[in-house]
């Protein structure tokens, strides 16, 4: 199990029409954040949420296009075995009638503003590998720990 410590905290405000997923990845790259705990909140104009069907090993998705509150978004920034960034996010959104829906965040476009907090994980490597039995990326066991 990866064990590390919190490093820097990078805070960024995303603007209208920005793509949430690609912008988080670009900010992480610009700020040299390799591994992080990701949190976000704000408003969206469009979102695609997914539900993982363990039997078919596929995501069932639903798209919403309206003024939406991004009530909560959390996840992790890791790397795969080739060093490519892997962003895994789950989100809860509400519509104008306060109906709430949540799931795996597949895509999202900023409505008015989204605040993103990247809490860097230092002293370890968060590497994800594909697990055939689950059909998902999972954390690789890792024991390296250094002071940040």
TrEMBL record:
- Which InterPro entries does this chain map to? PPC_dom
Pfam families of this UniProt entry?
A: PCC
Which residues are in the PPC domain? 4-142
Protein name per UniProt: PPC domain-containing protein
């Amino acid at each position: 199990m990866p064990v590390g410590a919190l490093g820097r905290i990078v805070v960024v405000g995303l603007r209208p029409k920005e793509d949430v997923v690609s912008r988080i990845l670009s900010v992480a790259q610009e700020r040299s954040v390799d591994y992080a705990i990701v949190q976000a909140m704000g408003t969206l104009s469009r979102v695609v949420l997914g539900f993982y069907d363990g039997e078919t090993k596929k995501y069932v998705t639903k798209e919403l296009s309206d003024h939406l509150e991004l009530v909560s978004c959390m996840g992790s920034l890791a790397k795969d075995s080739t060093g490519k960034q892997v962003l895994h996010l789950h989100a809860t959104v509400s519509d104008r009638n306060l109906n709430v829906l949540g799931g795996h965040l597949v895509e999202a476009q900023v409505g008015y503003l989204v605040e993103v907090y990247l809490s860097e994980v230092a002293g370890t490597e968060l590497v994800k590998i594909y697990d055939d039995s689950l059909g998902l990326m999972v954390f690789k066991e890792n024991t390296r720990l250094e002071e940040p």
